[in-house]
Amino acid sequence: DAKTTQPNSMESNEEEPVHLPCNHSTISGTDYIHWYRQLPSQGPEYVIHGLTSNVNNRMASLAIAEDRKSSTLILHRATLRDAAVYYCMTNNNDMRFGAGTRLTVKP
Amino acid sequence: DAMVIQNPRYQVTQFGKPVTLSCSQTLNHNVMYWYQQKSSQAPKLLFHYYDKDFNNEADTPDNFQSRRPNTSFCFLDIRSPGLGDAAMYLCATSSGTSGLYEQYFGPGTRLTVT
Predict the structure, then answer these.
(1) By CB atoms within 10 Å of each CB, which of A31, B24, B32, B67 scores lowest?
(2) For residue range A6-30, what is the model confidence (pLDDT) as tens digits?
(3) Is the bond into B69 cis (omega within 30 degrees of 0)?
(4) What is d(CA A104, CA A102) in angstroms, rounded to the nearest whole number?
(5) What is the mean pLDDT of residues B61-75?
């Protein structure tokens, strides 16, 4: 599986959009890009995943670069409940977590 | 609601005393995973089952074993816990192992070794 690189931490203001970047320059053609988040004292929670095209769901949007070497998770309006560690992973077979980005949301 | 259940949520064991953590799922998923998460670190995959096929990560210590008696249940056995095994243990399930499928996680069992 490809290794991912994310910023250690990011800050956002409440009700503003948040763009969380992830680099996965060694991704293979069949690897999906997955995002999970982990709220304090909870297990990780699935957010979104995609292969080539941009994806939207009720939680977030996933923008995938044309060369697939990077992606961005977009939270359209951050709330205090979105404060969590966000993990980007590429997966073709097994799921291995990278270090993640700790998102702080300020009121 | 379909879910992944881990029992107990908190487990205390003594150094060297075998301990078993359990996971059950109502999702009828083929794949069950065990992860170890130490404080301020990302979850680390220990092993997974695809149906009854066991897949061990190369760097998972022999001290960690797993059993999956049926589709719904999976157990993590730590044969001789050391202080370094204190961690959160997470169980997850998935319909398949390809990247097409997302994982569903349980709340975790926090293991303390005294």
Answers:
(1) B67
(2) 999 999 999 999 999 999 988 888 8
(3) no
(4) 7
(5) 96
Contact A44 B92 (CB under 8 A): yes
Of chain A, the percentage scoring pLDDT greater than 90 comes to: 76
Name the residue among A39, A9, A38, A3 with its Cα closest to residue A21. A9
Number of H helices, E strands in chain B: 0, 11
Angle CA(B106)–CA(B90)–CA(A78) in degrees, nearest 5?
A: 65
* Whole-number pLDDT of residue A26: 87
* A residues 43..82 contacting B (CB < 8 A): 43-46, 49, 51
Interior CA angle at B100 toward A1 and A67, to 5°? Answer: 60
CA distance B86 to chain A (A): 15
Residue A1 pLDDT exceeds 70: no
> Any idea what DSSP says for residue B47?
E
Say what the pLDDT of residue B37 is: 97
Residue B65 tokens, joined: 């074993």
C-alpha span between B66 and B35 (Å, rounded):
12
